[in-house]
Each structure stands twice: as C-alpha cells, then as structure tokens.
Design brief:
The chain has 8 helices and 8 strands; from the N terminus they run αβαβαβαββαβαβααβ. The chain is an alpha/beta fold. It is globular. The protein has one domain: 3-Layer(aba) Sandwich (Rossmann fold). Strands 1-4-3-2-5-6-8-7 form an 8-stranded mixed β-sheet, sandwiched between helices.
Length: 215
C-alpha cells in the first residue's frame, strides 16, 4: 500500500460520516445521524461513492448511504461530503451480505445497484447483487413500497437480471430499457455519470436500467 493510500485509510476511519460497525445505529439512522425524517436511499457496492455523492448533491431533501467492502475506495466520497458540508450522506465499510445488520426492517426507501460485478460464471449467480439471495436481504430492510434501481453496461448481465425478475413472483418490474439514452422519461435520473460509466460509453456500450419493486 502506497503512502498516500495509507494516509487516506487512516483519515477514512476517523471520518464522522464513515461507519465500520454501524449495528449500534441500526433502526436509528434518522435520529442519531441524519437528524431528520427524510427518505434513506442506499447504494450497494458504491466503490468511490461517485453516485452516492451526486445523488446527495441533487437531492438535499433525501439521505444517502453508500456501502462497499473495500474501505480505501470510500475515502473520496466521504471526503467530498465533508468538504462540501453536505450532511445527507454517509458510508459503511462492510459487506452487502449483512445489510440487515446495518438497517432495521422498513428503514430504507430505495436501493441503487450501480454497475455491479456481473459475476459471469453460473456458479457465481447468487453472488450477483440482484440475485434472489440479495433480493431477499433487500426485502428485509426496504419499506413495503420501496424501490430497487439497477444500472449496468453489461448486456448479458442485464438480460439475465430482467429474466430473473420476471420469473420471480415477488418482483414487479416497473421500468426497464437496454439503452437509457433513448428513454426520454429517464433523462433526469440517468444524467449522473460516473468515471466508469464514461469509460463504458467510450467503448460503445449502451447503459441499461431497470426499476423494480418487491411485492
């Protein structure tokens, strides 16, 4: 690990908007951290937190929490929230697999899954962040009318996800498209573009999107 990366890690673990073991705040995010009753939107596998940060900028009347297992990635997003004095963002350095340790039932309004690892091998299907395994976890923390958003560049993964959603009786597919640039109704919600999304676009990949509700 380089010197600067080590410095970032040390700084990250002292930031007030970064949680390593948020079990104590489970069920109390509104009261203990955000100090309001605004909706809580969670981004799983958030990486450097670009999407979480930009959502926070655009929607100051909502609260955002990014989750990623690799702590050093979170430094940039956490620092941006602090530098810009935005109090509507936080990050959890931890596994998505234990999301029920972080939030109480019904505490989350929406979940974003942005450019997840497609986990190509069939044996890794249940590791995909929108697999039935993860949907069951999300259901436990989402409100009854809560939404899940999926954004990806990977065609095979997208087609698998849509087929999986449609075959799952507990899922209602509300909107999906294999090219967000052609969807006029999605222009506002899709206008946030991360570094990796721009790289995908430069390679000629179209960006796919799906919005579902768990019923």
């Amino acid at each position: 690990m380089g010197r600067k990366k080590r410095e970032h890690v040390l700084e990250l673990y002292s930031m007030p908007n970064v949680f390593l073991s948020p079990e104590g705040i489970k069920g109390n995010w509104h009261e203990r951290y955000f100090k309001n009753n605004n909706p809580i939107i969670v981004e799983v596998g958030c990486g450097r937190g670009e999407y979480t940060v930009n959502l926070g900028r655009r929607h100051p009347d909502q609260n955002f929490v990014g989750i990623d297992a690799k702590g050093p990635r979170l430094w940039r997003g956490a620092k941006t929230f602090m530098d810009e004095e935005m109090g509507n963002g936080a990050f959890i350095c931890g596994l998505v697999e234990i999301i029920t340790d972080y939030f109480a039932p019904g505490e989350v309004d929406e979940i974003w899954v942005t450019f997840p690892d497609p986990q190509h091998k069939p044996s890794r299907e249940q590791q995909r962040l929108v697999s039935e395994r993860f949907l069951k976890l999300y259901r436990q923390v989402l409100k009854p009318d809560g939404l899940i958003h999926l954004k990806t560049d990977n065609t095979v993964f997208y087609e698998w996800a849509i087929q999986s959603f449609e075959q799952n009786q507990g899922v209602s597919v509300l909107r999906h498209t294999d090219d967000v640039d052609k969807a006029e109704d999605l222009k506002d919600i899709m206008s946030i573009r991360t570094k990796y999304e721009m790289l995908f676009r430069e390679k000629g990949e179209t960006i796919k999107y799906a919005r579902i509700a768990l019923v």
